[in-house]
Amino acid sequence: MLLEMDNVHKAFGGGETPLVHAARGLSFVIRPKDFIGLVGPSGSGKTTLLNMLGGLTLPDAGQIRFQGTVLSALSERERTAWRLKHAGFIFQNFQLLPMLTALENVTLLLHAQGVRGPQKDLLARQALESVGMANMADRYPAQMSGGQQQRVAIARAIASRPSIILADEPTGNLDRQTAQTVIDIFRGFNETHGLTFLFSTHDTRLISQVHEVWELRDGKL
Asked: Between vectors from CA 23 to CA 21 and to CA 24, what angle results, nearest 5°?
């Protein structure tokens, strides 16, 4: 297995604020090459689940293990290093830096991952080419459509071939045709390179294209 949740609990609030349970005893495994769609109503805990799997949020109880390593046992610096190496993130609002070109947005993350010299530029350009954005390498986010920005964000996430891609509503701001293009890119990397994907979505049109559908309600699968 690649990632495992074992009886994980997570709640927010307390005191005068009602407790919101984002995870109530979640247990599951994610295997290499899985292609999973995560669905559920707003507030059901999807984003929290993705953040916990990526080491951004720690559980209140239970364990999250990556190939046997307990993420909560790592220091904050160790979790950051783990995340840079093993987890790629894709967001609904793209989160590209507006003052950087497409190429620079990709190389910036590669630099943070420790890639230096000509290899950094090569990997970034290969990633942009793989999502059909090689001809936009020198353009800034403001010069791109939403779909183009999302493809750059995908290139940034997959450039170093992480162990898993965690995507939070990656097609939420895209039209139907562009959303399909993004999912086709995901499927291509899953089938050709064996990348593991877990992405949340409200788009029911995409559900038929995943290997498994997980529904999260009130912190339970």
From this structure: 85
Enter the pTM of the model. 0.91
> What is the token pair recorded at 75?
């220091």
Tell me the C-alpha distance between 87 and 105, whole Å.
17
Mean pLDDT of the chain: 92
Domains of the chain plus CATH, in order, are 33-60+74-215 (3.40.50.300)
What single-letter DSSP state applies at residue 88? E
Neighbours of 68 (CB within 10 A): 7
- Alpha-carbon distance values, 141 to 94, 102, 104, 173, 192 (Å): 10, 7, 11, 15, 28
Q: Report d(CA 165, CA 2) in Å as an integer.
A: 12
Beta strands in 31-93 (DSSP E): 35-39, 61-66, 69-70, 87-91
